[in-house]
Specification:
Helix content is about 40%, strand content about 15%. With about 375 residues, it is α/β, with parallel strands linked by helices. The strands form two sheets. A seven-stranded mixed beta sheet has the order 10-9-8-7-11-12-13. Strands 1, 2, 3, 4, 5 and 6 form a six-stranded mixed beta sheet that branches. Helix 2 crosses helix 3 and helix 9 packs antiparallel against helix 10.
């Protein structure tokens, strides 16, 4: 069910192209601070409720990062892995043309799940405006996600979160759900900080070794297009326990970094968890209610709207013509400060960090406009 309140959503649009079979969704949650910003994901299961939840998280994420963006999100309903490159191109171009009047005035797109630089090139070309999206190829003025801005921000949030969770990062064990751009970059920084990488998953399964995994070998596997599940078969790869994707939740480690699926942890899964700290590198991996159950169980959760804001900071740098150096400076300035402010507030009030993050984000949106009613701080 979509939640309507004094903050939004302002606009929900569903589109369909009978000629191509493309079906898509755009939710513009808020444009109070600027055009709605948020990525496009292409999955066979994406629906309006999921897109609306993601759009709302983008509203708060942009507000916390103090960027002149509102919140929005989009989805194309298709199996990105199964439809083939040519049909994917047709779907992306068809979707871009269908929402052309919105971009970039009220919606600025970006890549999300199963969408990459090439998809954004097709989107921008079909739209006719390079400002219609970020995440484009460098030849079109884009800043590639491969620079690792999101993952760097997740690492910084993890470092602050570990401090408040009573974890010494040096020697702490960590698991990463999803080993794409965000998961890889986060794992690299945590490894360099002397934390021990003990488990990882991708779409094919998960692996676990309590003595540690080689980040370099895992990175090389993904570079070659192989699954992390082949790790134990590689030269130099230690033997490890091979499990299904969802068994990453059963790993015994200090820290879990989520970096892929929405709604990864359900209420019934919380009793399975053996983590002291969960850092949300992916979007909406835990619902509000699941985070609340974790909070009651003593598991510290750093919310996505704080932890993975490096992505929208990177997007703004591209949108405004900034450079790579400015991205990392901004991430280093904003994400640790916001994480610390939220964790300190959570400690003082005994509220879960999500509530404290939402209160701060709402106050920033409300301060920008006089038209919103006072919101609850309960």
């Amino acid at each position: 069910m979509i939640k309507y309140d004094e903050f939004g959503p302002e606009k929900i649009l569903t589109v369909y192209d009978a000629k191509t079979g493309m079906r898509g969704i755009v939710v513009v949650d808020s444009t109070v601070l600027g055009p709605g910003k948020g990525g496009i994901r292409m999955t066979s299961t994406v629906d309006t409720e999921e897109v609306a939840r993601l759009a709302r998280s983008m509203t708060w994420k942009s507000a916390l990062a103090e960027l002149p963006f509102g919140g929005a999100k989009a989805g194309i309903i298709a199996d990105a892995k199964g439809i083939g490159k040519e049909k994917k191109r047709v779907f992306v171009e068809s979707f871009s043309r269908a929402i052309k009047t919105m971009c970039p005035a009220t919606y600025v797109a970006a890549p999300d799940m199963y969408m990459r630089e090439q998809d954004m090139a097709w989107f921008a070309e079909a739209n006719g405006d390079l400002k219609s999206c970020t995440g484009k190829p460098k030849s079109m003025g884009g800043i590639p996600h491969e620079i690792g801005g999101t993952g760097y921000g997740v690492f910084l949030a993890a470092r602050v979160g570990a401090e408040f969770a009573g974890i010494d990062l040096k020697g702490a064990t960590f698991a990463v759900e999803g080993f794409g751009n965000v998961g890889k970059a986060t794992a690299r920084h945590l490894t360099e900080a002397s934390a021990r990488f003990v488990a990882v998953s991708d779409s094919q399964g998960s692996i676990f070794n309590p003595e540690g995994l080689s980040f370099e070998l895992l990175e090389e596997l993904k570079r070659r297009g192989e699954s992390v599940t082949t790790y134990g078969l590689q030269k130099g790869g230690k033997s490890c326990t091979l499990n299904s994707c969802d068994r990453i939740l059963d790993v015994d480690a200090d820290i879990l970094v989520t970096a892929s699926q929405p709604d990864l942890v359900k209420v019934g899964d919380v009793d399975r968890l053996n983590f002291k700290l969960i850092v949300e590198g992916s979007n909406i991996p835990l619902s509000f209610w699941v985070e609340n159950v974790c909070h009651k169980r003593g598991i510290t959760v750093v919310p996505d709207i704080v932890a993975n804001a490096g992505g929208v900071i990177t997007s703004y740098a591209e949108y405004s013509g900034g450079g790579v150096d400015s991205i990392f400076d901004s991430i280093k300035e904003k994400i640790p400060a916001n994480t610390r402010a939220i964790m300190e507030e959570a400690g003082k009030t005994r509220r879960m960090p999500r509530k404290c993050a939402l209160n701060l984000a709402k106050s920033r949106v409300a301060a920008e406009t006089g038209r919103y009613a006072a919101f609850s701080r309960n």
